[in-house]
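Protein entry
_____________
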Amino acid sequence: MSYATTDLTDAHPEAFQVAEPIFRDFGGRLAFHGPDSQLG
């Protein structure tokens, strides 16, 4: 079974923190993928 991120956050809002939308356009790509990391 697979879950979309929106399904998980709707079902368990207390378990997630949403990052501020700080992304800027460098190169004109409309989407990206890959691992995320947290500093600090």
